[in-house]
């Protein structure tokens, strides 16, 4: 298998205070190779929380065991469940959490998966309350993604809401598709196939504004380049069309207040 450009794979890479990334092998969707990435957070009690687990190797398992005890496995949306079962087998005491729709889509793909809990939208689950904020992005009846904000590193953890493929890391014949989809690194955003599943744009915009309100400094993506600075600006850029009317209204309001102050 060709490299992803994010080597070394299957190893912990420090990202910030109590948080690590794992770059995994590419997965193919209709022939296109998407690099994969998991996120590991060490909670205050020393337990490990793993978001969107990638391929598990013996070496990676040893690294994780040296870091802490894996106790929480998160399948954050209906497209990210491929390696959950192998992680469940490796750490049978771990609790598994799934976004709405994961079990059903896995079954359609021939996988019978079992989870302990379905992730909620309103508040963070007890084991990581106060350390990670969480919400289910609203606006779609077909696609539900759980998003998380890690307080200690000021990092927003996304899965498929933004994809930013670094085309320089792709074989030349795959690059045009990334450009056509508008998910290349020059302007990463929600892939069109997922964006079209959000029929209620107002509800989706509310969710994006809530993420902006968390004030992330950095953004972790499951596919492509992460944003290591200017997190809020990157959200406003990636969702500028969704937020355009709201941003315009706010600018008008600011201008009117400024003008009234001068009067």
Automatic annotation (TrEMBL):
It holds the Pfam family DUF4336. InterPro entries: DUF4336, RibonucZ/Hydroxyglut_hydro. It comes from the Bacteria. Coiled coil: none annotated. Signal peptide: none annotated. This is DUF4336 domain-containing protein. The lineage of its organism: Bacteria, Pseudomonadati, Pseudomonadota, Alphaproteobacteria, Rhodobacterales.
């Amino acid at each position: 298998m060709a490299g992803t450009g994010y080597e070394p794979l299957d190893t912990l890479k420090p990202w910030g205070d109590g948080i690590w990334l794992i770059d995994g092998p590419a997965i193919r969707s209709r022939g296109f190779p998407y690099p994969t990435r998991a996120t590991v957070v060490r909670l205050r009690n020393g337990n490990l929380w793993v978001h969107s687990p990638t391929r598990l190797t013996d070496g990676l398992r040893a690294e994780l065991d040296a870091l802490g005890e894996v106790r929480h496995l998160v399948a954050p949306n209906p497209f990210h469940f491929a390696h959950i079962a192998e992680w469940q087998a490796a750490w049978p005491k771990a609790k598994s959490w799934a976004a709405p729709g994961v079990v059903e889509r896995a079954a359609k793909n021939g996988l019978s998966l079992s989870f302990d809990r379905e992730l909620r939208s309103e508040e963070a689950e007890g084991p990581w309350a106060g350390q990670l904020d969480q919400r289910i992005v609203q606006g779609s009846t077909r696609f539900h993604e759980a998003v998380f904000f890690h307080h200690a590193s000021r990092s927003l953890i996304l899965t498929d809401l933004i994809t930013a493929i670094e085309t320089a890391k792709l074989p030349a014949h795959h690059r045009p598709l990334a450009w056509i989809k508008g998910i290349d690194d020059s302007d990463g955003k929600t892939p069109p196939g997922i964006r079209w599943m959000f029929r209620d744009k107002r509800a989706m915009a509310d969710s994006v504004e809530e993420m902006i309100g968390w004030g992330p400094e950095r953004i972790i993506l499951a596919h492509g380049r992460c944003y290591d600075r200017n997190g809020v600006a990157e959200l406003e850029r990636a969702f500028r069309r969704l937020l355009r009317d709201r941003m315009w209204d706010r600018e008008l309001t600011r201008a009117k207040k400024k003008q009234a102050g001068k009067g």
